[in-house]
Structure formats: structure tokens, C-alpha cells
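Appendix B. One record, verbatim.
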Amino acid sequence: MKKDNEKNLWDNLDDKNKSYTVSVLHFFHYRRKIMISKSWTREEVFTWELVNALDILPREYFLAEFLNFIKQNKKELNNIAAKLSEHPSDVTLTAHPKLNPNRGNDASDIRLSINNNNELWIEAKTGIIKKEELLSQIEEQKRMLQKRNNNKKYGILALIPKDQKSETTFIYWSDVKEIFEIAVHKLEKDNKNNSNLIKGYKKIAQKLTDRIESFPNLT
């Protein structure tokens, strides 16, 4: 393999040059054609859109609402979600984080972390798979996270379509849609005299909720 190939160039690229759009283009550049076909239906695209929205939109509304939903409805993740929701502005969101930095193919879909200690890992699905397969993927992620030589506290959550069967902790994409709609309502209520200020935020949120609603498997 030549040292000057595109992957090596990317690996050595200054992070300041790895914008959101460039990162998405790079991610799909190395996927086979079968992966790129109907790319708008793939979980990777929904993952990028969700991470981007939670990262950019006012976090005291959208990310806080997302974490509070998990805290209130998923008791096994209550402690992790509570830690993350204490300071939503300090949470780091990562799309397609590696579970093992030494193995390129081992990755989850989303990681939310704070203070390099508490982590919420999310496995996103937009298509229906066997519940045993989903459970196997989650269990493998647990094993890999347990192997780390540190004291990080973590939780794992599946984000799934309405008809997906699951034997592990999960939320639905329809929950995300509802969370964003609640956040928009609160944003509008608190900024009713500054409608121009929040117009762009509402547009980003609407694009995601429209995508979720229009995709047949998700809601």
C-alpha cells in the first residue's frame, strides 16, 4: 500500500480540516457500492443527522430533553444519563466511535461522553433484524467495553424502528421524533419574542423529524 494513498492522507489530516460534510463524504468513500445504494435509507446517514442535530441545536433544550427521556424511562441507564444531563454543554458527541482503537471494524454508532469518564453508547438501526442478532451485537459491545483497562462508567442503548424486537435496553426512533418536537415547543415558548433567532434551529430539528416520520420502518 502506498504511503500517499487517500486513507493515509486522511489519517494525517489536521482535525480542523475534517468538517462535518468532509467527514461524511470520507465515511462513504470507502463503502462498497452495495452500501452506498439508497444511502438515504441507511442507519449511518440517520446517525450522522442525529449526532449533528444534537451537537448543534441548543443543548439545554434538545440534548437535555434526549437525556432526560432516557433518565426517566430507562432505569438501567438512569445514572449514566443523569451524569451526562448535569452539564449538557460539556458532553462530547461522536459518530461511529471505535470500540477498540486497534481494530478498525469495531465501532458503535454514537457515543455521548463527559469528563472522559461517563459514556452512553448507542447502537442505531433503521432496518429490522433478528432480535438475537441485535442482542449479540450489544453483548459484543459490552464485552469489548469491559476489556478496557480503566474505570469508565458506561451504558449501551439500542435505537430501533417501531417493529424491531429487542431483548436489550432500547428506545424507538419515534421517541426521538417526540423528544425533538417537545424541545422545539419549549424553545418557541422561551423565545416567543425572538422568532428570527430560532428559525434556523427549528429548521434543523424539522429536517430530522420529517426524515424520521417519512421513513416507513421507523415510526
